[in-house]
């Protein structure tokens, strides 16, 4: 692949991962935490960016060096572990995709006044169309890039309109008035948890970018992906902070929509519709592509028909939302499971980094291993706490 093609794939992988992270949950979490923590939420964003980069660099580098997908690496570390990881990812991806399809329906509802169900149906068809195209990989890359730029551009406009206290935001990013550990863990889980961090790593493998010689590019791509997601997070934080600082109250039923509406009136509300749709539809594409990438190496038939399986995955998510709506209990349960996927998957990757049968003569930097180990322990404790608090609520 020529240098230009390589750059295009790296940018595509970065945007696929970033836009997979920027979904309906991302928009809601950011605005809710801003209303709770005000300018101190900047510190939460800073901490989560550092942890995100540590997790993503470890995972992308070992996937590239080994030339294998995460489930195959896990099976080499401990036979059967890859199947367990794939099961968690696919179940989580399917449940979240039902939520993502719902978010796309809501975006359509705001933009055109149609019912969320009809909006979801149309959005599902658009997502499926991307994988019907012969050059599906390139179509996916281009779609996520355009949608990503549109989301960030429109949110910048709303942030400027809301006139946030930028000086205070900068100060509180480094000297917070309050620190919320749960918010940090939620942001890390929402950015690199579950299937999300593997979206770009697996996309690079599909495009043939692997081996030790590709490491500088892979590292750059991993950091760029977190950078893109973080720009969106920061801009949305500033937009919400401007509203909160004015003493205005966000609508608890739809916090991100009220930020856009209070900042820019009816135009702002329509902009929210576009941003919500773009965030949701790119997450639908990313979740389907990555979830299926976790099972396609298990048999030649799955590999051969993986595009058809991706289409079926999107169709099933769309059908469930259209007929049943969002199954709240399933989403909560899988959300709690998602918090446990990162420590399992990152832990496996860190063990794999020291197995020559997986990485050959590659020497993994010690600082990255330590960084990764801290993230595994932190996320395992917090993920476990979430499981124990959420599960009793479900079965109460």
TrEMBL record:
Instruction: Give compartment(s).
Output: Membrane
Keyword line: Membrane, Transmembrane, Transmembrane helix
Q: Which Pfam families match?
A: Nramp
- Listed transmembrane segments: 37-55, 76-98, 110-131, 143-160, 180-201, 222-247, 267-295, 307-324, 330-354, 366-388
Q: Which GO terms describe its cellular component?
A: plasma membrane
What is the superkingdom listed in this entry's lineage? Bacteria
Please name the GO terms that the record assigns under molecular function. Answer: cadmium ion transmembrane transporter activity; manganese ion transmembrane transporter activity
Q: Can the keyword Transmembrane helix be found in this entry's annotation?
A: yes
Name one process (GO BP) from the record: iron ion transmembrane transport
Q: Does the keyword Membrane apply?
A: yes
Membrane topology, from the record: Multi-pass membrane protein
Q: Check the record and name the PANTHER family matching this protein.
A: SOLUTE CARRIER PROTEIN FAMILY 11 MEMBER, TRANSPORTER PROTEIN
Can you name this protein?
A: Membrane protein
Task: Give the source lineage, highest ranks first.
Answer: Bacteria, Bacillati, Bacillota, Bacilli, Bacillales
């Amino acid at each position: 692949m020529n240098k230009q093609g390589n750059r295009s794939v790296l940018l595509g992988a970065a945007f696929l991962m970033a836009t997979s992270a920027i979904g309906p949950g991302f928009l809601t979490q950011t605005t809710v935490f801003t209303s709770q923590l005000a300018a101190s939420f900047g510190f939460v964003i800073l901490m989560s960016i550092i942890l995100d980069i540590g997790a993503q660099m470890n995972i992308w580098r070992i996937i590239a060096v080994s030339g294998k997908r995460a489930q195959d690496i896990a099976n080499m570390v401990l036979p059967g572990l890859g199947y367990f990881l794939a099961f968690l990812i696919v179940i989580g991806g399917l449940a979240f995709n039902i939520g993502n399809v719902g978010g796309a329906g809501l975006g359509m509802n705001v933009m055109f006044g149609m019912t969320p169900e009809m909006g979801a149906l149309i959005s599902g068809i658009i997502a499926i169309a991307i994988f019907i195209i012969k050059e599906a990989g390139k179509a996916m890359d281009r779609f996520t890039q355009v949608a990503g730029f549109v989301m960030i551009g429109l949110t910048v406009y709303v942030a400027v309109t809301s006139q946030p206290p930028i000086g205070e935001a900068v100060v509180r990013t480094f000297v917070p008035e309050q620190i919320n550990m749960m918010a940090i863990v939620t942001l890390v889980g929402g950015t690199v948890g579950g299937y999300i961090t593997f979206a770009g790593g697996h996309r690079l493998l599909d495009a043939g970018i692997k081996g030790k010689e590709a490491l500088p590019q892979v590292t750059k791509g991993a950091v760029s992906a977190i950078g893109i997601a973080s720009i969106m997070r920061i801009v949305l934080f500033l937009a919400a902070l401007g509203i909160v600082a004015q003493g205005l109250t966000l609508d608890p039923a739809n916090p991100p929509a009220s930020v856009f509406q209070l900042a820019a009136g009816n135009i702002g509300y329509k902009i929210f519709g576009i941003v919500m749709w773009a965030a949701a539809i790119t997450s639908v594409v990313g979740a389907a592509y990555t979830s299926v990438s976790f099972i396609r190496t298990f048999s030649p038939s799955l590999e051969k028909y993986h595009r058809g399986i991706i289409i079926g995955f999107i169709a099933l998510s769309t059908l469930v939302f259209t007929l049943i709506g969002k199954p709240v209990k399933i989403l909560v349960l899988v959300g709690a499971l998602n918090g446990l996927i990162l420590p399992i998957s990152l832990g496996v990757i860190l063990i794999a980094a020291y197995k020559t049968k997986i990485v050959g003569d590659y020497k993994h930097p010690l600082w990255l291993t330590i960084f990764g180990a801290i993230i595994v322990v932190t996320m395992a404790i917090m993920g476990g706490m979430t499981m124990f608090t959420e599960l009793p609520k479900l079965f109460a």
